[in-house]
Amino acid sequence: MGNNYLEEDALSPICNMKSDFRSYVKKRKNIENRRMSGNGLPDYAFVTDYEYRKKLDAIPHFYSMAKKICATYASRTLQEVNLTGMLVGPDQYPDVYQMGSDCARTLGIGIPNIYIVNDQTLNAYTIGTDDIEPLIVIHSGLYERMTPGELRCVIGHECGHIHNQHGIYNMLEQLMVAAGTTAVGLFSTQLMSLMTMGAEYLLNVWSRAAEVTCDRAALICCSQIEDAYRVNAKLLYGAAIGDRESVNLEALKKQFEMQMETLVRLEELTSTHPTSVRRILAEMEFAQCEVFYQWRPELKEAGQKVRSRKETDERCKRYVEVLRNEKKG
């Protein structure tokens, strides 16, 4: 009988499995590396986000300077928010804390500090990066009007900013604008104004692309894909508490075509966020992308056709780029 047990153990599928911590870490890193694009960004990042970051990285010393200042600013802001906001934790809003933990685990980042503050505007924001005091602030107005599934998408979006190191580039934007203001005394006011406007335009294009990247992170972290669409829809009309109105794709496309037919859309050039209609349509494109289902294979339906990342990015550009007057066919 003893010999039979030895033979069965030898045939066990787990007998040769490496269970030490070093092997686990190595395996985990290999999984994460496969999800990186080779440019230091996650494979789900919107291509325009990457392209404009390359241009920003070309500015000498600005990235390293922004990262150092971001660390100081994030630490100070965390302490300030701690004075006025409610810190989420296992014993305080445990459902929200669990959402943050789940999203962080899905994306492969550390669990961020999450606070809920008393503010009725529908907003949430992030400061810091994965290695610099990551902080997510959720306004009470947004918390009250989102369902649990929608709130998970909001937190997933903010975790996307952390995962993609966007906080450093946001700090870079503030530095460039400040530098333009400080240098006015050295050059003509008109010249420095033009230089600052050019930098602001560049950074706004990047910022709008970064929001598309993080909407993709929200989809990756979602419980249901429709939740991600409803978040941006509620940013349009406010929504009643607990509202679960579905998003009509054809109606959104008609609204998008109306936006593209007017020059008023050029006002978006000064905005850091795409319109909600643009964001929802871009999300719907990513929901048909092969990269999405590499992260969330359980959401793929049998026989569902998916597109490549390159094709998905090109289709998203049609919706997101303000100056590209091209309607989707």
TrEMBL record:
Protein family according to the UniProt entry: Belongs to the peptidase M48 family.
Cofactor: Zn(2+)
Cofactor note: Binds 1 zinc ion per subunit.
InterPro entries for the chain: HtpX_protease, Peptidase_M48
Signal peptide start and end residues: none
Record key words, sorted: Cell membrane, Hydrolase, Membrane, Metal-binding, Metalloprotease, Protease, Transmembrane, Transmembrane helix, Zinc
Gene Ontology terms for molecular function: metal ion binding; metalloendopeptidase activity
Organism encoding this protein: Candidatus Mediterraneibacter faecipullorum
Domain Peptidase M48, first and last residues per copy: 93-280
The keyword Zinc is annotated on this UniProt entry: yes
Name of the protein in its database record: M48 family metallopeptidase
GO biological process terms on file: proteolysis
